Amino acid sequence: MTTFEARAFQLGIEFPAAPKAVANYVPTYRTGNLLFVSGQLCMGSGGKLLASGLVSVDVSIEDATLAARASAINVLSQIRAALGSLDGIKQIVRLGGFIAAPADFTDHAKIMNGASDLMVEIFGEQGRHTRSTVGV
Predict the structure, then answer these.
(1) 30, 56, 71, 126 — which has fewest CB within 10 A?
(2) Contact, 95 vs 47, CB < 8 A?
(3) DSSP assignment of the chain, as one string?
(4) What global pTM score does this model have?
(5) 39-72 burial string, b = 16+ CB within 10 Å, else e?
(6) What is the CATH number of the domain that holds 36?
(7) Is 65 in contact with 107 (CB distance < 8 Å)?
């Protein structure tokens, strides 16, 4: 059986070091069998934002989808820091995303698929989750 860590490696995913909290909160909080992860930005491996601005104005839908994927990779980096490995995950339960876009933009869900698809690529059925996507 392939481990989740091995699957991520096969997919060529490189996990950056989990960033420290920048304000009065913690990056992760565990209660019982649940691990909550604070929101993560779309930081690339060089520590720079992969996208900035409004989708369809400043950022293409394709680039925004890649940015959502990068944010999900950063979520997984936080999980690895908290658990020591992705292999401690039993189920991805929920994702939430905030998409910066103009008021008339309607493809928020398509962008958030960048994060959701990654979870299923790595975790298979255990990566299927509930989700909220909010335009801001």
Answers:
(1) 30
(2) no
(3) ---HHHHHHHTT--PPPPPPPSSSS-SEEEETTEEEE-----B-TTSSBS--S-BTTTB-HHHHHHHHHHHHHHHHHHHHHHHSSGGG-S---EEEEEE---TT---HHHHHHHHHHHHHHHHGGGG--EEEEEE-
(4) 0.94
(5) ebebbbeeeeebbeebbbeebeeebbbbbbbbbb
(6) 3.30.1330.40
(7) no
pLDDT in tens, 24-73: 999 999 999 999 999 999 998 788 889 999 999 999 999 999 999 999 99
Provide the number of structural domains found in the chain: 1
Closest by CA to 116, choosing from 93, 87, 135, is: 93
Contact 114, 66 (CB under 8 A): yes
Please check whether residue 38 is in contact with residue 30, taking contact to mean a CB–CB distance below 8 angstroms.
no
* Domain span at 16: 4-135
The rounded distance, in Å, linking the Cα atoms of 11 and 26 is 29
Report CA-CA distances (Å) from 55 to 52, 63, 113, 128. Answer: 9, 9, 14, 25
